[in-house]
Q: What sequence folds into this?
């Protein structure tokens, strides 16, 4: 017959001298430590303003969701009575809460308004979401449309169905995820594309007599063996943004990065501002659409120079693509004399 004995220390042992309660607490503390270690790697890189190496860039994309394992770990430390771990968990919660706050500049332009511009950006996932995009464009009537992963059938459909309303275009043709296109109801003139694995065309739009630089963004995603390439292509977008700070600029697309990535923050540091953040939607997730709104990250952005105010930003659910589309209403302001 099994018996249990009080050891005098508050832990009960069975007949073999084991302490089930103590073992359970040690196991809980061990699990909490593992959770905290993983979160600490991501938060530490965020504090150090670096993206680190795999798996940190992938974790940083979902930084707000790291509150979940941190909270679970903190509960385990309390159950295990591991007070040092509890302090560790509280510190992580505090840092996460701090970094969840929006990054980058805000504020309104000081010059007089001169034009209203509606921008739509959408990754149609290898062209699969083209029909849904065309319907959204007809419904939303944007002035500028940035389309990523627009392969040959997507490109043909856009020409067939939208050419009358969007006679101006700049494109990098390609199969699979490589093709991209800018459609415009406004006159365009050519501009050098940003070189990359995936198409990133550029143009200069004539917005009521004001030149506006347009740049489509679609760097490679931070896959485990391609983090260096992802960083290089975001740096190329940063350099393009910084090349002419005197001209109003719209930089839009699937950045494969969130505000929690240092490489993306370097793009913002050129003076660009995230239109979704300006409109109060800085943490609304855009990918992966199939798990939204339960889980996701905002990696689709419209970045604008300080010449623009953002009146509204909306994320649209489109069928047959793993990204939400983003529509923003912008007001272009003239520079003060």
A:
């Amino acid at each position: 017959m099994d018996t249990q004995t009080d050891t005098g220390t508050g832990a009960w042992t069975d007949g073999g001298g084991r302490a089930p309660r103590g073992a359970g607490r040690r196991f809980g503390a061990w699990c909490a430590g593992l959770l905290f270690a993983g979160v600490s790697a991501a938060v530490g890189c965020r504090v150090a303003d670096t993206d680190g190496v795999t798996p940190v860039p992938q974790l940083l994309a979902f930084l707000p969701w790291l509150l979940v394992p941190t909270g679970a770990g903190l509960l385990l430390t309390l159950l295990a009575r591991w007070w040092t771990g509890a302090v560790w968990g509280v510190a992580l919660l505090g840092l996460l809460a701090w970094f969840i706050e929006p990054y980058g500049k805000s504020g309104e332009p000081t010059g007089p308004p001169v034009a209203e511009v509606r921008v739509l950006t959408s990754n149609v996932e290898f062209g699969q979401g083209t029909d849904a995009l065309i319907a959204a464009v007809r419904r939303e009537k944007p002035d500028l449309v940035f389309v990523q992963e627009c392969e040959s059938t997507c490109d043909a459909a856009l020409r067939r169905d939208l050419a009358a309303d969007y006679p101006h275009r700049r494109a990098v043709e390609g199969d699979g995820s490589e093709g991209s296109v800018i459609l415009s109801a406004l006159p365009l003139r050519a501009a050098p594309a940003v070189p990359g694995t995936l198409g990133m065309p550029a143009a200069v739009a004539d917005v009521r007599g004001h030149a506006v630089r347009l740049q489509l963004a679609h760097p490679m995603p931070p896959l485990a063996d391609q983090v260096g390439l992802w960083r290089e292509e975001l740096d190329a977008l940063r350099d393009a943004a910084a090349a002419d700070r005197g001209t109003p600029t719209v930089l839009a697309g699937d950045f494969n990065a969130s505000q929690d990535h240092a490489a993306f923050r370097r793009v913002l540091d050129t003076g660009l501002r995230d239109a979704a953040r300006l409109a109060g939607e800085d943490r609304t997730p855009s990918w992966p659409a199939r798990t939204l709104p339960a889980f996701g990250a905002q990696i689709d952005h419209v970045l604008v120079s300080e010449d623009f105010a953002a009146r509204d930003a909306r994320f649209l659910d489109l069928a047959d693509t793993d990204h939400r589309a983003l529509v923003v209403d912008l007001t272009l302001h003239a520079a003060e004399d």
